[in-house]
């Protein structure tokens, strides 16, 4: 018997003015277990569908999402705040994960070999790993959802998706679209809550759940890994970053500035891949810094629906407080403000595009993710020093290297402890590429073929 209770509701806010867009019932642990029940009920049927059938459903979802690009984009702007043009870009990037994994669904290939000693044959097959809990952040409300749902469904898993409390509406729209595309009931279950800890605890304590795929902060990631330990749940973790952006002596400065604008300002700096530390060779430092300052000062800030806006608000007051704290600390320790370094008065959580140079070692901004439109610049005189600085972090998600000599840039990229490297470009993300980090930036990869493997369990058969 279900006892109807009046559930608490939580508001979804527009970060451009703090107004309430909508409110949703906040799911608790019982609702989360009901979602696991639904995922369990749908699991066998979904896993036994022909890979081609799963592929075609995902392909239809890609097509629907492409048709609905504008609707999804508008929802993203409302609850997350990025400019409409960027939101359209995210909605197509998100759809591409569905297309990519519709193609990967038929490539869960195994292996066959003769044992090295010649004693027997070895056959390896792949099966869906089981029910997966997917926890996504607010910065890419659509793309983080499809980057996890795509491979999970392609692999034959059923899922419980827990979107960020700031951006649940986009996730719900995507779930609706998947149903329309033919995803059977119970395969994708969305649990919205503003109290995620008890929900995650309940789901990860359920022995039917075999996978966690999480994107978010390293602190929460560590806690979730602890929750995975008792039942030895497989965890894919996309955590924080502290990306170094290296400009070598021989870099093309125009290319480096364009790359810096992309690496810093994509998503308003609210990306784990955002360049967090600019390390520039002494000889080109002023030229790079003055051109970057000019480009940053020209960025138009405004409501994401304003046609001219290139930078929207930060997600909430706490995010802006953090940016302010990091900037104030850097200035106190001797950094110089080239532009910005102030909030923009009025409603919403706007912060001016900021360039700081002469950032001093020990400044908090060098060790914490700023997650906002702030570019802190340091200089170096030799490349070994630059590599050492780049590696001076517990994170290792992405690094950017700018040099006219691709071989030299590549050699430096090889020395940096990181999962991804952008060579003379400021964006690396692609659904076809393995996205992920080393060190405390995470475990596992999303996208590419690797993304599918995260949701598959190999099974090895030995026979004569
Ligand atoms: P951010 O700082 O970017 O908001 P978080 O790591 O706090 O990153 O959030 C990423 C996701 O993790 C969101 O869906 C959020 O609801 C969820 N989350 C936050 N805290 C917890 C927790 N204790 N247990 C489970 N999920 C959590």
Automatic annotation (TrEMBL):
GO MF term set: succinate-semialdehyde dehydrogenase (NAD+) activity
Active site residues according to the UniProt entry: 238
Alphabetically ordered keywords of this record: Oxidoreductase
Superkingdom, taxonomy of origin: Bacteria
InterPro entries: Ald_DH/histidinol_DH (IPR016161), Ald_DH_C (IPR016163), Ald_DH_CS_GLU (IPR029510), Ald_DH_N (IPR016162), Aldehyde_DH_dom (IPR015590), Aldehyde_DH_Superfamily (IPR050740)
Occurrences of domain Aldehyde dehydrogenase (ranges): 6-459
A GO BP annotation: gamma-aminobutyric acid catabolic process
KW Iron-sulfur (keyword) present: no
Similarity field: Belongs to the aldehyde dehydrogenase family.
Protein name per the record: NAD-dependent succinate-semialdehyde dehydrogenase
């Amino acid at each position: 018997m279900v006892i109807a209770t009046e559930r608490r509701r939580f508001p979804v806010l527009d970060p451009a003015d703090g107004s309430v867009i909508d409110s949703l019932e906040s799911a608790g642990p019982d609702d989360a277990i009901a979602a696991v029940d639904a995922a369990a009920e749908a699991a066998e049927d979904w896993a036994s569908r022909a890979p081609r059938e799963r592929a075609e459903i995902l392909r239809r979802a890609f097509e629907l999402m492409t048709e609905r690009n504008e609707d999804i984009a508008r929802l993203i702007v409302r609850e997350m705040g990025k400019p409409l043009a960027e939101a359209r870009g995210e909605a197509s990037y998100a759809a591409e994960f569905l297309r990519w994994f519709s193609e990967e669904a038929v490539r869960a290939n195994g292996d066959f070999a003769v044992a090295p000693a010649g004693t027997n044959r070895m056959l390896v097959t792949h099966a869906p790993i089981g029910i997966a809990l997917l926890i996504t952040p607010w910065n890419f409300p659509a793309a983080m959802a499809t980057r996890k749902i795509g491979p999970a469904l392609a692999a034959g898993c059923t899922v419980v998706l827990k979107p960020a409390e700031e951006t649940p509406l986009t996730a719900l729209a995507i779930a609706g679209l998947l149903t329309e595309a033919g995803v059977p009931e119970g395969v994708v279950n969305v649990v919205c809550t503003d109290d995620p800890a008890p929900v995650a605890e309940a789901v990860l304590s359920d022995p039917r759940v075999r996978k966690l795929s999480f994107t978010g902060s390293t602190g929460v990631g560590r806690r979730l890994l602890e929750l995975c330990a008792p039942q030895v749940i497989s965890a894919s973790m996309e955590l924080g970053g502290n990306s170094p952006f290296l400009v070598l002596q021989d870099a093309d400065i125009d290319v480096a500035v364009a790359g810096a604008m992309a690496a810093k300002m994509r998503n308003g700096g609210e990306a784990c891949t955002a360049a967090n530390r600019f390390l520039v060779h002494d000889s080109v430092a002023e030229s790079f810094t003055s051109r970057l300052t000019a480009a940053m000062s020209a960025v138009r800030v405004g409501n994401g629906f304003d046609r001219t806006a290139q930078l929207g608000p930060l997600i909430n007051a706490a995010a802006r407080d953090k940016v302010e704290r990091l900037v104030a600390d850097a200035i106190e320790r001797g950094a110089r403000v080239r532009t910005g370094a102030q909030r923009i008065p009025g409603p919403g959580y706007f912060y001016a595009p900021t360039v700081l140079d002469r950032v001093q070692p020990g400044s908090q901004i060098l060790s914490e993710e700023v997650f906002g439109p702030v570019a802190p610049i340091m200089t170096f005189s030799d490349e070994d020093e630059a590599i050492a600085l780049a590696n001076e972090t517990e994170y290792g998600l992405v690094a950017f290297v700018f040099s006219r000599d691709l071989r030299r840039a590549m050699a430096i990229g090889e020395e940096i402890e990181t999962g991804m490297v952008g060579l003379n470009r400021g964006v690396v993300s692609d659904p076809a590429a393995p996205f992920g980090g080393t060190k405390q930036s995470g475990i596992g990869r999303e996208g590419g073929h690797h993304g599918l493997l995260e949701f598959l369990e190999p099974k090895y058969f030995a026979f004569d």
